[in-house]
Amino acid sequence: MLYAICDGIYGKVHLRLAQARLAVVEQQARGVHRMSRQTIRAPGVPVSPLPFSPAVLAGGFVFVSGQASVDETGKIVPDTFEGEMRRSFENVAKVLAGAGLELDDVVQVRAYVRDPGDLPVYNKVYQDLFREPYPARTTLTHCLPETLRFEVEAIAQMRE
């Protein structure tokens, strides 16, 4: 049984995500193959030697892997917290462009902030990057190595 609390457009998006996940579980239980997935790649997107896709399109959503303050070759570009945050979101925008989307299509953000003292700057920049209704958001602190101040992953909804 599916339980969901929906409030506004983002509640509906979360309900759709929950329904998509439930459909996958039900299909697997019946032996039906999972829904198709497509890797999203775009020019200027940082490369990584690690085994993951920059983004995956599945079930009408684009799931963007964690993006940090790195250049096109994957080299870390150290900066102030705000600079690293902005570069990370620029990388998210490049990935989304590969699917014909932009930051306005983002419905959920999960951010990793090394120093909780940077949260006021995070909130200010977030308001610069997004407008109401804001994407759903989770922010985790104290979870990055010394080489990074910020990393972000996102989920965007394909346009109808």
Uncertain segments: 1-10
CATH topology of the largest domain: 60s Ribosomal Protein L30, Chain: A
* Helix content bin: 25-40%
So how many helices? 3
Summarize the main sheet: 6 strands, mixed
Strand order of the largest sheet: 1-2-3-6-4-5
Please characterize this protein's 3D structure:
It is a single chain. The protein has 160 residues and is α+β, with helices and mostly antiparallel strands. The protein has two domains: 1-35; 36-157, RutC-like (60s Ribosomal Protein L30, Chain: A, 2-Layer Sandwich). Helix content is 31%, strand content 23%. Strands 1-2-3-6-4-5 form a six-stranded mixed β-sheet. Helix 2 (81-97) runs parallel beside helix 3 (119-129).
Q: Which descriptors would you attach to this protein?
A:
globular, 31% helix, 3 helices, 2 domains, alpha+beta, 6 strands, six-stranded mixed beta sheet, 23% strand, 60s Ribosomal Protein L30, Chain: A, single chain, 160 residues
